[in-house]
Amino acid sequence: MTEVPGDSYDLVIIGAGPTGLFAAYYAGFRGLSMAVVDSLPEPGGQVTAMYPEKMIYDVGGFAEVRGRDLVEGLVKQAAPWNPKYLLGRKAEKLETVGDKVELTLDGGETLKAGAVLITAGIGEFTPRPLPAGDGWLGRGMVHFVPALAAHAGQHVVVVGGGDSAFDWILALHPVAASVTLVHRRAKFRAAESIVRQARELGVRIITDAEVTQFIEAEDGALEAVTVAMKGAEDERLPANAVVAALGFTADLGPIESWGLEIDHRAIAVDSTMATARERVYAAGDVAAYPGKVKLIATGFGEAATAVNNIAVALDPDAHLFPGHSSNAE
Ligand SMILES: Cc1cc2nc3c(=O)[nH]c(=O)nc-3n(C[C@H](O)[C@H](O)[C@H](O)COP(=O)(O)OP(=O)(O)OC[C@H]3O[C@@H](n4cnc5c(N)ncnc54)[C@H](O)[C@@H]3O)c2cc1C
Q1: Ligand 1, from 13, 22, 47: best to mutate by most atoms within 8 Å of Cβ?
Q2: What pLDDT was estimated at residue 6?
Q3: Whose alpha carbon is nearest atom 30 of ligand 1?
Q4: What is the pLDDT of residues 234-280, one digit of tens each?
Q5: Which keywords describe this protein according to UniProt (predicted)?
Q6: Are 95 and 102 in contact (CB under 8 A)?
Q7: Tens digit of pLDDT for each residue in 62-78?
Q8: Which domains does the chain possess?
Q9: How far apart are CA 86 and CA 88, in angstroms?
């Protein structure tokens, strides 16, 4: 397959979750040039957004692997093939022009491709907002923590009461100067064991309370937050960072209007992972067929099937079987 310059690729992959990242590796292995688009600012999909610190026990070859390490491994595995990552960019529109597919991103940029592989998982994530943090995203407030080191020595306030909020607490506790959890209810949605772990670490947990104000230092950085507590005086907490872990909503959004066969927020595919549209394939959580099991392991297999079939669709003289990677230089 030929190297295509600029905004034109053999394959554009929509979604940099585990399936899309593994597809990027496979596309490189098949000699395809590729771009990977994701609306999140970091690769890793659900793993990065929701459980980077959790151990995963059902990925082949790993007795256990931390979510964050799995994503790092996937990015490293694809790196030799130089995928062009377009992160923080949403795929909006898909058109077929001649024998090419044209994908328009938010902002209007168009990518041309021989084929598109949709690995959009459960869709685009939209974090549930923390109203007091309006205008603070990226200036002190984050919805998830891609790199713990960014919070070394900081006072961090985590807002939320689910598994992710507690995951962040446990992960940040060893590196941050202080970690405080603020939750607006008395009860948590998180697993009891993880709540116990946080308590045993001595993390301050404030319940029946809400962060109501972000306080700016003279240099514009976040300095503190105001916490309103039921039946008590407001408290000012030092805060260099607020992790708003209030959960995400997920939505296939524009993909639903691309003329694909969609059922229960998933795209129907055949055994080659082809969709109802020519040159458009799907794999991972977003792909549906009878007997589908939504797991990382399944997504890896589907990525390999999709990309090898795409290689043949793009070049009918190519072999479907890629050869064994163990024979590659
Ligand atoms: C808490 C939790 C624990 C889990 N534990 C396990 C486990 O132990 N083992 C296991 O196998 N599975 C587990 N899963 C499921 C696993 O995470 C998913 O099966 C896997 O992430 C699917 O990968 P994917 O790449 O297909 O999709 P996703 O990980 O959902 O990635 C899809 C990506 O596509 C992007 N996207 C969507 N629409 C667009 C668009 N229009 N434009 C640009 N980008 C877009 C999204 O931003 C996202 O990054 C767990 C899930 C959760 C929530």
Answers
A1: 47
A2: 55
A3: 121
A4: 999 999 999 999 988 889 999 999 999 998 899 999 999 999 999 99
A5: FAD, Flavoprotein, NADP, Oxidoreductase
A6: yes
A7: 999 999 999 999 999 99
A8: 8-125+249-327 (3.50.50.60), 129-246 (3.50.50.60)
A9: 7
Q: 280 in ligand 1 pocket by Cβ < 6 Å?
A: no
For the residues 180-187, what does the mean pLDDT come to?
97
The answer to the question of whether 106 is labelled as a binding residue is no
Here the contacts of 195-204 (C-beta below 8 Å, separation 24 or greater) are 195/166, 197/166, 197/170, 198/166, 198/169, 198/170, 198/173, 201/169, 201/170, 201/173, 203/169, 203/173, 203/179, 204/178, 204/179, 204/180
Task: Give pTM, 2 decimals.
Answer: 0.86
pLDDT digit string (tens) for 196-217?
Answer: 999 999 999 999 999 999 999 9
Q: Write the single-letter amino acid at 148.
A: L
- The annotation status of 38 as a binding-site residue, yes or no, is yes
Q: Please indicate if the annotation marks 91 as binding a ligand.
A: yes
Structure tokens at 80: 């030799």
Q: How far apart are the first and last CA of the chain?
A: 18
Place 37 in a pLDDT band, splitting at 50, 70 and 90: very high
- The answer to whether the CB of 49 falls within 8 A of the CB of 146 is no
- C-alpha span between 293 and 274 (Å, rounded): 18
CA 306, CA 280: separation in Å to the nearest integer? Answer: 10
Query: In the 8-state DSSP scheme, what is residue 129?
Result: P
